[in-house]
Amino acid sequence: MITRGGSDGVSISGMDPYLESNEHWPSFHHLLADEIMAQLNRLLSEKYYADLEVRTILEEVGITTTSVVYPDAAVLEITSQLSPPATTAPTLTAPIQRVAIPAGQTKLRSVHVYVAESKELVTLIEILSPVNKRGHGLGRYRQKREQILHTTVHLVELDLLREGQRPGWELANPPLDTDYVCLVNRASYGDDRISEIWPVALNEPLPDLPVPLLPPDPDIILYLNEAVKNIYDRAAYARRIDYQQPLPPPKLRPSLQGWWEKFRLENK
User: Fold this and answer.
1) Taking the domains of the chain in order of start, what are their residue ranges?
2) Is 0.70 topped by the overall pTM?
């Protein structure tokens, strides 16, 4: 929720939809992961620690496949998809074929909570990016998600993007009429895993979320709204964003049109 105030003219109370733009999302995603890691490490006991995992998504220009690589790599070997020229002359095939056009790279960051002594992964916090919610990236993330849900690792998902398809099937049956979704799925030693779901409207503050640990240790609390506000102030987004520009897609839900028009009038 964008509100007026502060030395830069705008302050943030909730999620700022302008941060969903292609211009601002990469830095926001990076900063949010760092902020969550730092916040959790202040709250965790000495038994645990939080760390970042960074993986690079290569989206080939003119090729529809999306590949995840560890570590960062800029060259992906592929099989040529071009048809050979029509000719009766013999065709010579090179032993190696590689993409000559530079790949577009998207760095995805997640926060992991480990047991300090054993390095056991206890909780995975995923901050969804556009690539996780469309095309091949959506399918790959759903596979990863399914694998996690068959382990004893807790999963926390932060979907702070209005555009794209939400990966979790439990969010589609029935679909949620909301802008953002935060989800906590606790590890289960039985057959069922239950997702605890926080739907968040654009004009509402982001929720405080439980971060599960190993039993019998109690949850710690992720203060998500505080994390976003700290990033917004630290990165000076108020002076970088032109709030007179149209919102990034998608279109607002009809129930928010009146709120948005009032905001625009108050901030001309």
Assistant:
1) 2-78+96-266
2) yes
